[in-house]
């Protein structure tokens, strides 16, 4: 009787990444940010676990409230979609990603492109994720399986765009928080985005950003009954966040910081 074949190192890595977005994010961070060290953090693990839960159907719509500088865009808008195409095995998946400004839209789109078409990524998932010939756009990254990551700004709108999943990220600029007109523009954008699903029965959606006003995108999501992952910079036991996938904010002391290794009292 022939001995069972042992899995190769590449097969073991692919299986580990299939099971864990966090493992994928930790190991492939250097591909996008070679000059910025990845720092293990519980909030990053929470972001990854909740993105994965949305993709796997355990959460429908997710609202993430977290301050600036905590890698929320990198995890949710760049690394997460790359995980879906490769490790999760769905290269035909289509994303609509939106931000407040065109510059932020292009920033994250180019990071995503650099990741999925990198040598390290292609070595493991190049059989699934191949660049679409002639696709030189900065705002639409498409592969030969017809999956794409389409980036738009709030101002440009989502008319004519449809996808399997929406990711809205910082849709209101901090300088516009007190503008009733700008907040109304964001609300209209969110309402329009809600109609852009390819599947009328299910439209997974993640909204991420810092809270700036009761009527910002986070407020819109709370009104529309999105599940909320709230990770305040300073912990308040009276507002401890728990979610349906078994997550509970790990902190215990009032004022305890979210990521003290990077943002301690002096930095804050």
Distance between the termini: 64 Å
Total DSSP helices: 8
Q: Give the proportion of residues in helices.
A: 25-40%
User: What ranges have pLDDT less than 50 throughout 5 or more consecutive residues?
Assistant: none
In this structure, how is the largest beta sheet organized?
Answer: 7 strands, mixed
Instruction: Please report the total strand number as a whole number.
Output: 7
β-strand percent reads 5-15%
Mean pLDDT: 94
* Oligomerization status of the protein chains: single chain
How would you characterize this protein structure?
- The protein has 268 residues and is α/β, with parallel strands linked by helices.
- The chain has eight helices and seven strands; from the N terminus they run H-H-H-E-H-E-H-H-E-E-E-H-E-H-E.
- The chain has helices spanning 9-19, 21-32, 42-55, 72-85, 102-116, 119-125, 180-193, 217-223, and strands spanning 61-66, 94-99, 140-142, 148-153, 165-169, 205-209, 227-231.
- The chain has a seven-stranded mixed sheet, with helices on both faces.
- The termini are far apart.
Helix/strand layout:
Elements: H1 9-19, H2 21-32, H3 42-55, E1 61-66, H4 72-85, E2 94-99, H5 102-116, H6 119-125, E3 140-142, E4 148-153, E5 165-169, H7 180-193, E6 205-209, H8 217-223, E7 227-231
Helix pairs in contact: 1-2, 2-4, 3-4, 4-5
Give structural attributes.
268 residues; alpha/beta; 7-stranded mixed beta sheet; 8 helices
